[in-house]
Every structure is written in structure tokens, then in C-alpha cells.
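Case study B.
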Amino acid sequence: MKKVNIIRFIFVLAVFSAVTMIFTASAAAQTVYKWRLVSVWPAYTAFAQVEKRLIKNIFELSGGRLQITGHAAGELVPTMAVFDTVSKGAAEMGIDYPGYWQGKNSVFDLLGTVPMAFSQYDVINWYIHGGGRELFNEMYGKYNLIYYMHSVASVGSGIRSIKPIRTLADLKGLKIRVSGRAAGYVMVKAGATPVMTDPAQIAQALAQGQIDAASFNAPKVDLSLGLGEVTKYNIGPGWNIPSGVGGLMINKDAWDTLPPDLKKIIEVATMDSITFFSSLSEWDTIDALNEFQEKGTVVTKFSDKELAQIEAWVWEFIEAEAKKNPDFEKVATSIFQYMKNYSIARKYQEPYSHGRNPAKYPKLPKLK
Amino acid sequence: MKKVNIIRFIFVLAVFSAVTMIFTASAAAQTVYKWRLVSVWPAYTAFAQVEKRLIKNIFELSGGRLQITGHAAGELVPTMAVFDTVSKGAAEMGIDYPGYWQGKNSVFDLLGTVPMAFSQYDVINWYIHGGGRELFNEMYGKYNLIYYMHSVASVGSGIRSIKPIRTLADLKGLKIRVSGRAAGYVMVKAGATPVMTDPAQIAQALAQGQIDAASFNAPKVDLSLGLGEVTKYNIGPGWNIPSGVGGLMINKDAWDTLPPDLKKIIEVATMDSITFFSSLSEWDTIDALNEFQEKGTVVTKFSDKELAQIEAWVWEFIEAEAKKNPDFEKVATSIFQYMKNYSIARKYQEPYSHGRNPAKYPKLPKLK
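Model:
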């Protein structure tokens, strides 16, 4: 019987070892990461919709191993604290508009939108194939952040106003809410006073006469702020925000704890977001323009000659900023190199092309 | 000791049950699907690059549970047999250009490209938000296929020729290789003879004078066929193929065997492909146009008046085909409804918009 007992003992031991091995293996594969995401966007915008899609996709693709809880602007931290919150790791992820961080480094303004230049598809082409992705990660990397582009908004609205603005000369003496320093520079050149108003306060500021006009975002977003009620006039095109980047910031230390497959899942899920949101932003524009039309909004445009003048002012701003900030120069050179290289394709594809070839380019020392 | 033996017996039984359960569970979660993918594209085209990316992404996202072996055109079956191969389940997946199946149903021609209409981004907007995806699945569903859009090529080349073509009148009497029935109809109207030449034979047919001119695909693809050597002239724009869809066909019976998470992985991976390939196609165009320029290709364009004439002929073809085929009418109505609805956005966004608003639309009974 002794021999039988030993065999039984060995057998039970083997079974135990097998069980232990299986549990260890599945424990490693099934570590659940519970992360928090803070966003710069309020819950009522279309941006919140694509954030939810991203979170759901990551959950499903990872079989529940990466669980992200999303927090809209102000829920956990205010919009302007999102960058530092993720940079310091108080939340693992954040959704941003790069331009909001221009106070830290003027290059972020350029990464958010390129006035008079980047269409929605130019941004995507440049990000994926033109070195854009590397530059985003270089700039955000200085703040302990990994960056994935997550959305690119369609052409923004022009300027909405209470009194009609029909020419550049009409801007003179007005107080205008604009975002972005290049747009602010253009306003000053045109004799207007640029004002920074919190998005949630724009409609009220217009209604109470604190500002005369405002340019914020895409038509659908403007509509959600109630700008259809308080402004009767809208002059385009959206030269100051021909496209708008949204991104997913990830704290570098948190990122380093992820296994390779979860990193891959995040990367592919953001590519899905780009496709989904770019088209959603276009789709929303159709609805919003129809609604503005029903509300009686009168739409006009600056003439080609006036746009050429605006372009000259924007390039002036870009050239001056490039001289002050090497990061700005580096990114601006890459952006306008893309614009120059791509110009042959845009011209060839006309009238099926997207965006525009500038007649001139800003003077940047390394631009070929 | 009897009691102890019983306890021991129960314990061993419990361990066995646990082990069995774990193995069963992990076997279910870890069923490996080994699938075959057949493509209509030769390995030397950019399409092969994005197919490889799709296969790799699906492998990595699924942790190796969905393993796909890709086969370029002709490796397993010839291009024109890809549809039936997947429809019948001899391969689980296929990569296609819908227009190749126009012989089965003329609606596939329209799903591949919409002459004079859909830009690359119009296709994506319509597919995701305008009911396009549902229509693709309705039409392919008749052949036991599930469909995911996988790539959208950028604006195609116009017509490349040995002798100069500078006006519509110059087409008269020429033998021209074109793809798509609408383009063939335009050629006939212009007094030319449309010819269908296998892509691999186009350069030779031109060199030997069997055809006078050819229109195939995007500049990079044309370049890979050697058309830079045999044609000196190129007249644009690419009205006959302003965008070109590529899709992933999946045999419905094979699809039904997949667990929900693998279906989700395929869906998200194709969204990645769309973003990646749309921009790659643009990027490749820059290179190809520069190469054509170095080879001395002379590029011209049809005038706006001539394009209006071409458009009238294309609409004539679409109206006639819609009367013959209810599937064609259904898809054409959805496409041109998108074009009409979107026109307000395109006009508003100008000059940052993509594609064009037709001056007129084809007459389709249900088009509002």
C-alpha cells in the first residue's frame, strides 16, 4: 500500500502544480487595469459621444482588462487642470484640445489648429504619414505624456455677430471673442479687440453686449452653446479653425505598466475614433447649418482679397513666433513642409480635393 | 481511516472538477480560428500593405485567436473568382473592389465609385452616418456575405495617353481603356471606343498601339503598372473615379461561428484600415505625381464646360440604370440624397471643403 500512497501523493501534487500554473498564467493575462479619464469637454458636446465610444471599444477589445471611467469637464477637475492632472498621474488619461495648453508652450496652439492651412484631412495625412505623430509625442513627452490623436473636427464656424459683419473693415472697433493667438493677432491688425470668454459664458456675453461677436467651434458646437438665438449674422469661412485636433493624453508612468497588447488596443481604438469622429463632425455640420438657417442666420463670406490679407497677417504671426520659440519653429516647419509637398496633389485632384493651397507660405528658415 | 479516505476522495474529485472547468473555460476562450483571405490585388500594390496591416492588427488584438493567412491576387484564385470563393466559403475572407462584380448586379459598380460625385471623405461620411454601411450589407448579404469597408482610395488619375488629349473633342475615334460602365457610356457619347484591358496588360497594350489611352487608378497604382514610361500625356481631373472603395467580404456562415469579441475586433480593425489607407493613398499621390513629372508627363484638365457635359452624360447613365435595376435605384437615391443634404456644408466650408457640389442632380424618383 505504501507504493500506492506515494503514487497517489505524486499524482495529487502534480494536479496541484497544474492548477497553480493555470491560475498564475491566467492571473498574469487577466490583470485588470482600472483607469480614470478626465476630459476638457462638457458632457453635452459631440466630443463626449466619441469619448464614450473609445472607452467602450477599449473595454470590449481588452475583454474587460482595461476599464476606464470617463469624467466630463468639471466633474473631477476643471478643463484647464486636465493637462496637469494627467501629467502628474492623478488621472491616467485625459482628452484634450492642444490649444488650451498654449500658456505652457506656444507650440500647443499650432498643434490644435493651423489657421488658413490644415483641413481635417491634412491633419490626418500629416499625423500618420508626415511625422506629425512623432512631433505630438515629442512635445507632450516633455510633460511626461504619451499622445494619440483621437478626433479631428471639421471646418469651424466663422465669426457670429449681432450686427452684420460683411467686410474686414467692419471688424474695426468691435470686441470679439476668439480662441488662438494667431486669430487674436488678426483681430488686432483689423482694429478689433480680441477677448477670451469661457465657452459657457459666450451666449450671455453676446446677449448682454459685453462682446459684439464670437468665434468658437464647429456649427453644431456653436448651436449647443445657444449662439443660434443671440447672433443673427455669420461671416465665414472658418479660416481661424479650418480643423481642430482632439487627443488622448496618457500619463507616461501609467503607460509603462501596460502589457504590449493593451497598448496596441489603445492605438487601434484611437484610429477608430479618428474615422468615426471626423465623419460625425461633418454630419453634425449639416444638421447645425440647417438649424441656423431655420433660425434666420444670415451667412456671408470674406472675399478672396480679404482672405489673402488675413493670410498675410497669420503668416506674420507664425514667422514671429517661430523666431521666439524653437519648438514652434520645428512644428511649423513640418506643417508647412507638408503643405508645400502636398500642393501638387491638391492641384491635380481639384475639384475633388480637400482644403486649399496657399498662394504664399510663411518664411521659415528650414522650409524647403 | 475509511472516513479520511472518503474525504481524500472527495477532495481529489473537487480538484479534478476545478481543473476540468478551467480547461473547458480557457478552451472556449482560446479557440483558434485559422482563416484564409483572398484578395483582388496583386502583392506589389499599396493595397497589399494595408491588407497586411489588417491581418496583423486582428492577430494582435485577438491575442492570436484569429489567425488569417493572406493570399494576393492569383495566388490561390484569380481576381475575378474572389467573390464566389468567399460567397461559397472556400475562403472565409476576401478583399475586393466592388466594381469588379458589376456583372452579377450593376449596383456593385456604384458601390465601387460614383463618377462626378463621391470624394474619398464623402464615401466615409455616407458609409458611417448616411446609411451606406447598411446598404453594402444588404447588397452583399444577397450573396451570403458580410461587408466591412476597409479602404477608400484618393482621387484617381484622369486619362493617360500617348498622343495629347486636350479637349473632349480629342477623344473622338480613340480606343480607350476605362473601368466602370458610366465611364464607358461617356466614352461612347464622346465618340471613343471603351475597351476593357486587364490591369497587368495596360502598359503593353499602349506600347503596342492596341489602345490609344487608358484610365486605371490612383497615380501611384498607375505608376506601378509602368504607365509613366508609355504615356506622355495625362488629362484630369479623375471624374470617373473620384474615390474608390475597397472592402472586406466575410462568408456569412464563417462569420456566424465567431464569438462577439472577435466580431468587434474585425469591426474596429477595419476602421483603423480606413484611416490608415485613406491617408496613405493621399501620401502616395504626392510621390507618384512628382515621379510622373520627372518622367516628363504633361498634365492638363478638361474645362468646367466640358466637365458639365461629362456630368450630364453620367447622370443620363445613372437615370437609365436606375429604371432597369431596383437595387441600383435604391443605392443611387441614397448616394445622391447624401450629396444634396451635404451640399449646404460643402458650400459653407469652402475653400476648406472636400469634393464638389454638382450644379444639377440626376433625376431619381425618390430623391428629395
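The first helix of chain B runs from residue 2 to 29. The remaining cases will be described in the next quarterly update.
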